[in-house]
Amino acid sequence: MAEPPLIPRPEGLYCPEGRFYIDPVQPVDRALITHGHADHARAGHGAVMATRQTLEIMAIRYGADFTGTREEAGTEARVNGVKVSFHPAGHVLGSAQIRMEIGGRVVVVSGDYTRAPNPACAPFELVPCDLFVTEATFGLPVFRHPDPLAEVGKLMASLAQFPDRAHLVGSYALGKAQRVIALIRAAGWDRPIYLHGALQRLCDYHIEQGVPLGELRPATIERGNKAQFAGEIILAPPSAFAAKWAQRFPDPVLAFASGWMGVRARARQRMCELPMVISDHCDWPALTRTIRETGASEVWVTHGAEEALVHWCRKQGLAAQPLHLVGYEEEPE
């Protein structure tokens, strides 16, 4: 019996022929990384191959010595005889799907991806394959994400209704914050947007990479002048909402941008007054559409509602299985 092209291991998804892991959650000799979110991109590997932007994002987050050797993914490379190439995933800046030719089959590991337009990164590229490894973060039929511009419209309406209140928008530091800023600009907001310090460096990096974000300012309150943020937009990591930092602003409206805001219990748990359903992952229609369009005859499903998507695939006549990989979060900071 032929050895499978990829094997789930505690360290991550392993390619025996190429002797490398994809997005390993533990230190390994050689890792191929799909994108810079912390549950996919860890420090401490002997060698890391990724897109230039992902390598630079990892250096920003972990320091220049996050790996022994950096290998920038070009248009095509061979890793211990396995032909690999990286293709845009549309998830965050630098995110990629990894295409491999193994044993006469084309295998694509998608990482996290989205089909929705995202001005903060390159758009998703459909890669035909025989075996498609897909995430299932929102892998239930109930998940159908609304128009993100309409969700930002809720923020604009709240600003008009409550001009004396600061509007704090919880946004993850890599990808979500920059996408939300771009959407706010698309909605016509040309005033400064204020940032928690934890978001500043990655926003600066996006600007360096040519992503237009407009005027950004530090969310620094002058002594005794809370009113300076009345009617303003402040972006912060969600963790800041539980700290005294958020209490310094005038009667803040707490908003949170996430695909999970479509689940009312999640919004209540976050004590969120203004939930904005903005996701950097595919919803159910986009997941199933992508699987069809790849032409894959076999689908492996990971991190999310695996069983539901596996069931759908099998009903379509596709060979499918869940991977049950551990260490991947729903939507990491």
From TrEMBL:
Keywords, in A-Z order: Ligase
Membrane-crossing segments per the record: none
GO molecular function, one term: ligase activity
Signal sequence interval, chain numbering: none
Name of the protein in question: DNA ligase-associated DEXH box helicase
Taxonomic source organism: Pacificitalea manganoxidans
